[in-house]
């Protein structure tokens, strides 16, 4: 079957792309970004599969290799032989194009019920790197946060906290036993995991990726939570949240979460959301106890081009 290569700007002008986005049972992002590279697999005059990919400048800088990201969309819902073969063919074409453009590898995130895309990625040499779930909590009936135990202080971050916060983020989210982050688990990327989270935290402190950073103090920094104000849909986000290893198991995560959610509610958010690893049982228990519900899950695959 023919594979058509277009820029994102060109693809956005094709009615076949809009028709595929409207018909795709697993959804799709349309239109693509103007600078995206788009590959479409055509069947009987319609697009059966579409892949949009781009280079990730930030990730490439942090990890010291050219990395990209891809998004998939397809017409068929289930991994029957014909549809699976189509997806593997398209992804083979994507790998060839991205390799020729100089990329070392790319990531691709699909819904946790998108078995067709997941199996097509596996057929093309992709490796499962992450399983995450987005949780949402209604803030209308949020109870007042509990008082802090004696000896603990919770306050907005200060410049004097910076290095401790950067170090804690780098350690907490790259701890393979405790967090299972895809950047820590992939042996090609784990060297850059601490730097990635140091930059993420630095961007949060600068107000780029968080509107509020609360710090829990017990003589020294014992934990933190970073919060993003509501978007157009009225949702606020808990972005990064960690407790020092020696302070875990004392209920401090629940304490940080309760006060962070209260701040989001004060800022006008109607719901709060968090995206966390499916393996993070303590986090999901904490959100569940507060009445949160899982919205959707996703699977992230890594595709390395010298392995296919």
Summary keywords:
31% strand; single chain; Aminopeptidase; elongated; 10 helices; alpha+beta; twelve-stranded mixed β-sheet; 308 residues
Topology:
Elements: E1 3-7, H1 8-12, H2 15-23, E2 37-43, E3 46-55, H3 57-63, E4 67-74, H4 81-100, E5 105-111, H5 115-123, E6 127-138, E7 153-156, H6 162-172, H7 182-185, H8 193-205, E8 212-218, E9 220-228, E10 235-243, H9 252-266, E11 271-277, H10 281-289, E12 293-304
Parallel strand pairs: 4-5, 10-11
Antiparallel strand pairs: 1-2, 2-3, 3-4, 5-12, 6-11, 6-12, 7-8, 8-9, 9-10
Helix pairs in contact: 4-5, 6-8
CATH topology of the largest domain: Aminopeptidase
By CATH, the superfamily of the largest domain comes out as Gcn5-related N-acetyltransferase (GNAT)
Identify the quaternary structure here. single chain
Helix content: 25-40%
Mean pLDDT: 94
Mind telling me the C-alpha Rg? 21 Å
Spans where pLDDT lies below 50 across 5 or more residues: none
Number of DSSP helical runs: 10
In the CATH hierarchy, what is the architecture of the largest domain at level 2?
Answer: 3-Layer(aba) Sandwich
CATH class of the largest domain: Alpha Beta
């Amino acid at each position: 079957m023919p594979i058509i290569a277009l820029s994102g700007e060109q693809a956005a002008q094709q009615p076949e792309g809009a028709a595929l986005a409207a018909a795709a049972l697993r959804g799709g992002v349309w239109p693509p970004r103007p600078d995206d590279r788009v590959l479409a697999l055509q069947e009987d005059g319609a697009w059966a599969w579409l892949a949009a990919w781009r280079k990730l400048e930030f990730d490439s800088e942090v990890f010291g290799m050219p990395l990209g990201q891809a998004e998939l969309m397809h017409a068929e819902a289930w991994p029957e032989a014909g549809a699976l073969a189509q997806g593997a063919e398209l992804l083979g074409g994507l790998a060839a194009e991205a390799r020729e453009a100089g990329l070392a590898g790319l990531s691709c995130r699909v819904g946790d019920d998108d078995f067709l895309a997941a199996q097509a990625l596996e057929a093309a040499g992709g490796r499962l790197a992450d399983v995450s779930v987005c949780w949402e909590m209604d803030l209308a009936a949020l109870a007042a946060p509990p008082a802090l135990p004696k000896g603990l202080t919770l306050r907005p971050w200060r410049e004097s906290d910076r290095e401790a916060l950067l170090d804690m983020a780098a350690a907490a989210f790259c701890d393979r036993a405790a967090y299972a982050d895809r950047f820590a688990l992939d042996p090609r990327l784990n060297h850059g995991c601490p730097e990635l989270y140091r930059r993420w935290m630095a961007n949060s402190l600068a107000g780029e990726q968080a509107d509020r950073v609360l710090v829990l103090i017990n003589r020294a920094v014992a934990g933190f939570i970073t919060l993003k104000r509501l978007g157009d849909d009225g949702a606020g986000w808990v972005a990064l949240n960690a407790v020092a290893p020696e302070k875990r198991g004392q209920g401090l995560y629940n304490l940080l979460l309760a006060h962070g959610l209260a701040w989001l509610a004060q800022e006008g958010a109607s719901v709060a959301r968090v995206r966390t690893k499916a393996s993070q049982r303590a986090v999901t228990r904490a959100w569940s106890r507060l009445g949160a519900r899982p919205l959707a899950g996703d699977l992230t695959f890594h595709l390395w081009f010298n392995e296919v």
